[in-house]
Design goal:
Length: 324
């Protein structure tokens, strides 16, 4: 009998339970996927903790890669045995097998392994919409990315560098600074001992940057705004340190007619055509060697609680996966 991680109440990592279940046949429009690898992402901790409320009890996880085992009625473009990957859709990726709406699946090229597929989809598609859709980075731009040594951060550093940008990134230690630098970050800033807003102004000759990509939230928000040049864009795409408290929108005017957006991957990939186009863009840069998918942590799926503990303690770098 297959197993999955579920939680019946929100809280710390120990609420995650390893439970057996009896899989049901895929409903109309669904496919059953046997996972070979599952992605670990910071948003998973938001669901578990209750920061992003979900109906309970619940599965968890938004990303995986594997093989199609069965199809429900009305599914076109897929067949049993196809290699697939996905990011988004209903929670439940932390499972040995699962049913998922077939329209969320994309074909995984043979050149990309299941482990890479599970590690790259959510973070890679996030990097795609940040760099190519929310603010379209151009050659010569200087950008700021927080958590530059994290999964999304390392992808943004590599991809932005390939686009011809200068990359400034914040990190928590000298070790992480070296990791970020090795992946295209021109100016890593150790935020634990340097005031990053002052450093960004110094690096840019006082001008500021056209865009800040901020997944930290409360701890960095105001200083991130201070890094922007007039009419710059603040892209708040996460809240690792907690949600940003309410603030006076008039500050955006006073600080230079700034733009603020709070995008999500789910909005950008809501339409099937957009999802397929974004995945193709991602697969292209990976296949071309411009974006290397480095998996620095592997955990047994049954030890998801330990994985969450280490992720929240910022003990991880790059991408992490769970192995069924």
């Amino acid at each position: 009998m297959p197993h999955a991680i579920r939680f019946h109440q929100t809280g710390k990592p120990e609420v995650l339970q390893w439970e057996s279940f009896d899989p049901v046949a895929p409903a109309a429009g669904e496919a059953r996927v046997r996972h070979y690898a599952v992605g670990l992402n910071y948003i998973d901790t938001y669901h578990r903790s209750g920061l992003y409320p979900v109906p309970l009890p619940s599965g968890i996880g938004l990303e995986g890669a594997g093989v199609v085992e069965a199809l429900g009625d009305g599914v076109d473009g897929l067949k049993v045995g196809d290699r697939v990957a996905y990011a988004g859709g209903p929670l439940g990726a932390y499972a040995e097998v699962r049913n998922i709406p077939a329209h969320r699946l994309v074909a995984l090229p043979e050149s990309i392994s299941f482990e890479q597929g599970a590690a790259m989809m959510l973070q890679g598609l996030t990097a795609e919409y940040l760099l190519r859709r929310t603010y379209r980075v151009q050659p010569g731009d200087t950008i700021l990315i927080h958590a530059a040594a994290g999964g999304v951060g390392l992808m943004v550093c590599q991809w932005a560098k390939a686009l011809g940008a200068t990359v400034i990134g914040t990190v928590g230690s000298d070790e992480k600074a070296e990791i970020a630098r090795a992946h295209g970050c021109d100016h890593p800033i150790v935020y634990t001992r340097e005031r990053f807003a002052e450093q960004v102004r110094s690096i840019t000759g006082g001008r500021g940057v056209p865009v800040v990509y901020d997944s930290i939230g409360a701890d960095t928000f105001m200083d991130s705004l201070a890094c922007l040049r007039p009419m710059g864009m603040m892209v708040l795409f996460g809240a690792a340190s907690g949600p940003v408290p309410p603030f006076d929108c008039g500050l955006l005017a006073k600080m230079g007619s700034l733009f603020l957006t709070r995008p999500t991957l789910f909005t950008y990939t809501a339409e099937r055509d957009d999802l397929v186009a974004m995945a193709a863009d991602l697969f292209d840069v990976v296949s071309a060697g411009k974006l290397k998918i480095e998996i620095n942590q592997r955990y047994p799926l049954s030890e998801a609680a330990r994985a969450h503990t280490e992720l929240e303690a910022r003990l991880t770098t790059g991408s992490s996966i769970l192995l069924p």
